[in-house]
Amino acid sequence: MTAQALPSPVPARHSRRRELLDLLASMRFAIALLTVICIASAIGTVVKQGEPMVNYVDQFGPFWAEAFGALGLYRIYSSAWFLVILAFLVISTSLCIARNTPKILADWRTHKEGIRERALQAFHHKAAGQLAEPANVVEGQVLQTLQAQGWSIKTQQRDASKQGEAGVMIAARLGKANKVGYIAAHTAIVLVCLGGLFDGDLVVKVQAWAQDLQPFRGGTELANSRLSERNPAYRAQLFVSEGQRTNASVIHLEQGMLVQPLPFEIELKKFVVEYYETGMPKRFASDIVIHDPREKVAKPFTIEVNHPVVYDGVTIFQSSFEDGGSLVKLRPLYLDRAGGRSGPEVLDATVGGSVAALPADWLTQGASPLQLEVTGLRVINVENLADAQSAAPAAAATDVRGVNLSDLSKHLGSGARPGGNKQLVNIGPSVTYKLRDAAGQAREYQNFMVPVELDGYRMFLLGVRDTPAESFRYLRVPADEAMSLQGWLRLRQALNDKVLRDEAARRFGEASGPVDRPEVREQLTVSAQRSLDLFAGAVALETAAGQPASDVPNGGLMALSRFIEQVVPPAQREQTSGTLIRILNGALFELYNLSRTKAGLPAQSIDDPAVQAFMSRAVLSLSDAMLYPVPVVFMLDSFEQRQASVFQVTRTPGRNVVYLGCVLLIIGVFAMLYIRDRRLWVWLQQDAGGGTRVQMALSSTRQTLDTDREFDRLRQTVLGEAPNDLTAPTAKES
Fold this sequence. Notes:
Blueprint: H1 9-25, H2 27-46, H3 53-60, H4 62-70, H5 80-109, E1 125-131, H6 135-148, E2 152-158, E3 167-174, H7 178-199, H8 202-211, E4 234-241, E5 245-253, E6 256-275, E7 281-291, E8 299-304, E9 309-311, E10 314-323, E11 327-334, E12 347-350, E13 354-355, E14 364-365, E15 368-369, E16 371-378, E17 382-384, H9 386-389, H10 393-396, E18 424-426, E19 430-436, E20 442-448, E21 452-454, E22 457-465, E23 473-478, H11 486-495, H12 498-512, H13 518-536, H14 557-567, H15 573-598, H16 609-625, E24 632-640, E25 643-651, H17 654-674, E26 678-686, E27 692-700, H18 705-719
């Protein structure tokens, strides 16, 4: 046996490399990548990007929020897998262009005049005929006709000895710009992807990796978190308060922030908001001054929404606005008792800061002191109060017990929401603050400065929520005759005073019982005293097992309801509850007059409708207040507003590349869809009788009715009425 040489491994390696290049350059692979990019972009459009994690947990739940976060769906456009797919799409499309462009250019330059005359019979659009004119005359007529219609023409004289039969092959072409569409469309995809890569986070991340920068989350250690002023591409946020100037913008990353210094400083002179007659804002603008160290004169500009300013290659957008450190005066109102507190009557605070000098006995929750942090000031609050103004009288008597007032949504919320008639009303300023305990846990409160008209009555709104993901739950407190909280507040404080409760119960018994029956008056006094004690939370309720009833508020109407369930048989509960509520209302009215007398104000009559409306709402509000988490309310006394603008500053040189790509994409799509590449061949051969034998064929990139009609016109022009036996059926006829 003869030994056979083993095959060399080099061709195999070349073959695998060739297969890999073929895969990368294949159109199917590029389309698959483009599909993934489109799906990811759609997800990035639906899911808000760059939000705090708590927002995603609230929206999707803990499990799916963590799963989506692991997939990078909250920062899709800067995630590693998205950038890798985008890079592969660029490579694949570039290889497609590199592979097919030489073929397209070669096809662009040729008319294929060397085609054999017999091959014309294989085309779909074909025709043949006999003309009486000599071949040179027919050739001139055909050339003149095609030139008039804009065809590009080449002719080839053929010798019978070298190329078969003698004759003239006329090759014409029209619409070859269709070939440009392929190159333009694919080049557009590459340019758009490159522009997106360059203007995204890729440049910033590469710089951070190359310079070993560390993103910061807070504090003042910024030395190793600064990018260069010459950064070619970035998208950052710049916060400027009125009267201040800065050049330190920040770029938000998943791990924290990087400082992007600008080559100039931006000073905010004034933030302007203009409103419609309804109170809705119609214009947001910032009057700024740019201080460039390279220029001697500062340059003023006005930035509006959708009207950015471009300076030194940096585009400055009006992104949003925030409070710039407004000065507020807060007046503490105590719900438990009057006086007995140390400290000032009015607190001076700054929005965004905390009041650390509160006396220790002001705010306590168990043994933990609470710290006051003022977080927001809204001077204008526009709400839709159409339902409140048109409410029926019966709706005014709706039981609104509980801090979470479900029907409040028809009064508060977005003034732009659809459905129903709208009456947009500015309900005045509001202040938002947090009370934080020693463990760092905080509740957020929102109180409106002036009363709001709800169901025809003026009510103060005191909001509270446990987490930012929740909506505010509002305690509605009726305003007194002076449009203040003092009337209700005096009643609440008197309710917590044992001496005043007993005196109110005694007065109620004397006023309600017959003069000749002291035992009835005494019984009414005891019942009124018991009702007031239960309503004030001075009597602890117990369960059937003798344990404290933890599921019932310590006071309010729910405490009376549990008391009735414990001591009254079921058959008598409805009658007893009605009697007990009437006794409670009467005793509370006497307590209200006692609080007014103590404050040096005249007593009021229960026959006054305004007093009746106030007392009916005060009873429900006092019951709701039992669930209010702290014994003090901070009301906005006065304020000095200071605004701040949030600008988006961008340097996007890739934007021009994307614009060029969009132009090429339009050209490419138009060329491929609306320009048909057609080739026409006409074969002319002189016969023995002096006439001319003609064969013609037409090819097109798309077979349409327009192609059929165009070939019919050419056939009629060149051949006239051709005999049926010499003319093949057209696509239209077949």
